[in-house]
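Standup, Tuesday
Yesterday: got the pipeline producing structure tokens again.
Today: sanity-check two examples.
Blockers: none.

Example 1:
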Amino acid sequence: MNLGIENRVALVMGASRGIGRGIAAALAREGARVAIVSRSPENLDEAAAEIGEGATPFVADAGDLDRLAALPGEVEEKLGTIEILVLNSGGPPFGGALDHELDEWEAAYRSLVLAPRVLAGAVIPGMRERGWGRIVNVGSSSTREPIPGLNLSNAHRMAAVGFLKTLAGEVAADGITVNTVATGRFATERLADAGGSLAGAEEAARREVPAARLGRPEEYGDLVAFLASDRAAFLTGTVIPLDGGLLRSAF
């Protein structure tokens, strides 16, 4: 299937490892010119080498809003107008509803809600001018069913979805789509941290996930590549579960 994204410019946050790297690799395979972003220069170099041609590294932290405001301009100077934006950030600390101090709440709000606002605000004008754009948010299944022990993620990812759903309605007529993926359990370092080890997380998935396994970052990349494509032009304002059937709710 020709996705129609060859030579389009994509900015992928959190792209040095895990799901972000899987997304960046999928877009690059489809011929996109991908700005891969991470706060870790050494991990970025490794990711760029693995992804190969089409990947250009940029250093930025999702919690540094001033840096994020400048980032799209730097990407456009090197690669051209950003047409695909993938919002992805490492998850906030684990804990229950009353386990975190207010400064931790504020830090999570910056990275999960304000960072998407800053980046979307920077790229929307160029997308509108071209009459084409794709924004994909790497969210969580916690926006459907809050996950025990992940209070900061539960609270702030819901806020991000509210913002992005509102945005989707405002830019749809400009040829811009905005969608969120409700992420289930994927074989990443963060899940390993949550489960004690990746082997422990895989064993739990065999018992608890209907697909009886963890998701793979490359599978995530395939879905995002489709959402970023010409073929997905009528799909916007959605929250799409990618979880091997883990969510119990029907809607």
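Example 2:
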Amino acid sequence: MSSNKGLYRFNQMMFPRHLLRLIGSSSAFFLLLSGASLHAATLPPGFTEGLVATGLTNATAMSFSPDGRLFVCQQAGALRVISNGTLLPTPFTTVATSATGERGLLGVTFDPNFASNRFVYVYYTAATPATHNRVSRFTASIADPNVAEPGSEVAILDLDDLSGATNHNGGAIHFGPDGKLYVAVGENANPANAQTVGNRLGKLLRVNADGTIPADNPLTFPGIAGSPTGANRAIWAVGLRNPYTFAFQPGTGRMFINDVGASTWEEINDGIVASNYGWSICEGACTPPNGNFRDPLFQYDHVIGATGGCAIVGGAFYNPPVNQFPASYVGKYFFGDLCSGWIRVMDPSNNTASDFASAIATPVDVQIGPEGSLYYLIRGGTGQVWKVSSTTPATPTPTPTSTPTPTKTPTPSATSTTTPATPTPPPTATPTVTPTPTPVVTPTPSATPAPAAQALNLSTRLRVQTGDNVGIAGFIITGTAPKHLLLRALGPTLFVEFDSDRLADPVLELHRPSAATITNDNWRDDPVQEAAILATGLQPNNNLESAIDVTLNPGTYTAVIRGRNNTGGRGVVEIYDLSQAVLAKLANISTRAFVSTGEDIVIAGFILGGQTGNDRIVVRGIGPSLTALGVTNALANPTLELRDSNGALLIANNDWQDNLGQAAELTAAGLAPTNTLESGIAATLPPGQYTVLLAGLNNGTGVGLVEVYDRGRP
């Protein structure tokens, strides 16, 4: 067993030796593990907590399934399920594992297509044929999704054999926004492992869902000679000690990696492909600086107390589908410390951290629930899950999310598509092709239903070209009151898969009737706008991205996204409703763009929330009728797919009259397309995140229009 301070242990000696000396006796140590965990945490004013479940012996990690259940790993091998606030007596599965030291069942995640394939992935220490860490896939039973199908385990990734050291195993696993599985692996208490591409220890790995290795994984890493070969081609980043937890930010795809330190620093690192994080040459930021190594975004020392500790745990961005916390928390990153027993919150805009919760005995994981509450997992005592909620939540604020990458489209190659050209003024566009929705008169029900959810966010991912093929998004505000909105144009922070194909420097324009056009290049250009954007908590993560904070009267508007100096690439245009309570709503977005194939179809995303009732949505895919409006090369035969937050297909449509029921609803809403080859979908949906895919039939290409209408309560 290593003599280093700050070792992250999961057995009864999991505290570092310097803390054990402070405790002074084994009886005091066990008192800290058992009794103290029953005490409520100290929370900020306006927050409360409640016990969700207890009886989770030696818990190590937890994760929410796409359908809202909470799965909890127990070190000895049982994967437990909490459903509707109840810990089920039968584990989902129990793996045969070596659970000495920091080994055991350490991580769980869910396939992006879980709704259709029911795949659950776990990371654990296998004892045969030699002791090593493994990622396995299980399939949930059709008859009872709370247990795995017998015999369904498939080992998709067997890692390097372990030495006699039982610590530094990592264990976190998550699917990224690119649909790939990311796996955090410790260096097995051998620091030299972190600075070689000859094994997969001390690394962050990236594999396909079946365990095969993506062809676009990096071939070189700064400061390390040679290239990984064979199984080591799974390496995505190097130089890590014990990355026990990491997290992706919903929407932006940004990754933070928590690396447990040795004797000096705990780290939060920016997860960027082909990075070397410096262990064991540096712990914390390198002194003097070393150009080969990526320093942490944030680090804290090993002084046990309010801001120091011994082992960083948890890690979750506050970007839920519906914001239950005050809006100031949106986009922030929660993390905890095992020894000091606190949870703090980091602001990624300036990489500073502030206090959130304390007096928590042995927290080991932190997650954000789908309803917007914060959950933390206690390892000590009986093992518990606690839920922290705001007692005075603000009006729900949408998650800053670009639309999910659909799983049916291939991963693009990292090739630049930016083409400098003679600057051409962008078109001053108005959404004349988007009719204002006609109100539908419905009879008053005998019982008042729950208020309908409404569109909190509308966004479109598209390929931004030049001339008439820049991105043009028309939107409609209905009602009687002014509406506070945030518009964003993103490019540099899109998913890492896009690489140089991202729009490098987006420019955003807001065209208003009878008023001057508002233009923004970089969101921090105007100090007044910068302050207003920061106050929303939805500021872009790259200074080259664009945003406009504005209050608009009901009416029709157009947002244009283009590349600075007539460059091109994939971008996202987004509209956030920041004042859902006023008597107005964001009723429509209609985005015109060039529809290509593969990753370059047009993808519209929307978030419904704010209330608990269902909302009526109409989606249209327009192509042929654009020709009459002067659009050349219109998409000849558009197709639509509506998918949920897991990427599962809900409704598909080619020609809008194919389904007589759907056609009748589109006609009744006054939104029937004028060409029989165009597409339409009418759907009643609960609150949540959704994606619409606009493509051409048989890989057809051309200029198309995707429209999303919020029709209100069904």
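Quick observation on example 2: The longest helix spans residues 527-536. Confidence is low (pLDDT under 50) at residues 1-38, 394-447.
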